[in-house]
Fold this protein.
Amino acid sequence: MVLFYVGNYLKQKVRVFLKPNILYIVIDGLRADKFHGSSKTSVTPYLDNLVKNGTYFEQCISSAPCTVPSVASTITSLYPFECIIQDEHIFTLNPKLDNHILNLKKLGYTTYATYQDPISFLGLDDIYDFSEPYSVYEKLWNGLGEKIIKKLENGMNDPWFHYLQLYDLHLLAFPKEHRVNNGPDELNNKKFGANNYEQIISALDPWLKLFLEKIDLKNTLVIVTSDHGDYRASYNEYLENFNYKNIDSKIHTPGLSFKIAKKLTSPIPKKLFFGRKKLIKFYTDKTQSKHAKKMIPTLNEIDDKLSPHFKRMMNHSVVGGSDVYDDRFKIPLLIFGYDIPSNKIIKQQVRSIDIFPTIFEIIESNTNSLGHGKSLLPLIYGETFEELPAFLEGAVNAPRFGSTDIIGIRTSNFKYFRHKSDITKVHLYDLKNDPLEEKNIAKNNSSIVKEMEEILIKLQNDQGFEYKKTEQILDIDEEKKIEEELRKLGYM
């Protein structure tokens, strides 16, 4: 017994000096119930095996339903309204804030990031030592997978942290013809899943196997998670066909007036043309208004007799927007490698802001003190761990294209939310008995509403829940480029 404790002590001392490498995989848009569980129909033998060889959290809750605010929140352990700033029509990470990646660099980690072009404006290039953005058209099956393998084979400077964000599921934002011509072999094959979403997950599985075969799991901590969920995970054949039509309706080509205006104004120096942002705002608002009117007949087709959840999916397909329902907030979280306990399933609610504090405790660093996150290591090792409420915010990538005014609180039992400035219209759902959040029980449960509202109010800062604003980050050409890229991903 004495030898055991001495050996364990020496092992921990060695680890202080020999930090593990960290592979952080984000499968963009992947929902928890389609990663693991009874409702999953994809064919993923490798992912299933990974769950058996690690610790899986069934109930991890993101802070936002879109990539930019979610990623910003995760790498700072702050809530979106605290860590992102608004530059006219785009959200980006507040560059004045500290973040977990910078703290890893202070510990001697060389940091790498592989992600898609549209989120470059988040500021990732300035955070990581080496960043490698890729096109929205690159997927694992058409060349990206081979690039990642080469990166892992060529080696990185130890200890390394590699942030890898995969956008394969965003193929679903493209028109049907593009999907068919550019999708994986598994697409439209019911053998690999009930819908296109799950078929793409089946296509992801063998690539994850190839990636992880290139690293030493004894000295590598691996995190597999997501940034947010997606309604398309629940689509049946009718909804997939319905969504195809809506995607086609959203395709936008700038008209002659825009092209003429751009040609006339382009020669004018940006510093002298003070009205450029106002001009583009006028044009974009006009375009959005025309699109909204165009989609009204489609909205009118939605039958009131349908279930609230089904209508919600149809509405989102037509007009997009933001909300705080579990379809977009419940994400997978799997941690394995580096002696993490195997075959452990944790049902207790945790939060995406807890992921990096957990990483820092696993690598035995005391440098982490950011934000509101708490290390989940005690929970991993079976110790008592108080479940904390998760803050929910309807923050989007570009505020012009969706409501950003929804805030709420989630526990394992209840979901509560409301508009930032209106406390008269509130929503409360019993998640145990109503997991699809179809019956608002706020009216008859005033005591629970009061309790949840008190939790919510305590989380606001001096600005309430409002974002800081600036006009110094992006010029109009950069904004337009970003908006077009976000459109391709289905965010607009």
Q: What stands out?
A: The CA atoms of residues 162 and 436 lie 35 Å apart. The two ends are 61 Å apart (CA to CA). The first strand starts at residue 21 and ends at 27.
